[in-house]
Amino acid sequence: MIFLGADHAGFELKEEIRKWLQERGDSVMDMGTDSKENVDFTEYAKSVAKATIEQNGKGILFCSSGQGMAIAANKVDGIRAAVAWIPEIAEESKAHSDTNVLCLPANFLKADQVKEIIDKWLSTPFASEPRYIRRIKRMKEFETN
Questions:
Q1: What positions carry a catalytic annotation?
Q2: Total Cβ atoms within 10 A of residue 116
């Protein structure tokens, strides 16, 4: 399951990507927002992050820069969220850090670019090399709840 979330700045892009993912046959749950009305991004980051952990899914978050969503999502234990603006960043985040939430800067990317980034992220496996496994294990030591 892919959980989607966005604030007002990412709403339109989220809507387009939701439709595209569904057309591809991906299982998608849209967790809001449902309009361009000003909202607090933290609520959507938290909802997507918690669902991602609870259901062992993947999350994709959209806000103006991607940074706020990543910061907020990474507060949830077990989340490894990364901001990506090109496919290679998404690929490396997945291969090296086994990211489970992808954060996208809606103010700086067009839908076609986002589709390429998401394609790369979803299709990239975790490299499973000992050094990457060790690093993820060490990151888990930072978790508090």
A1: 63, 96
A2: 14
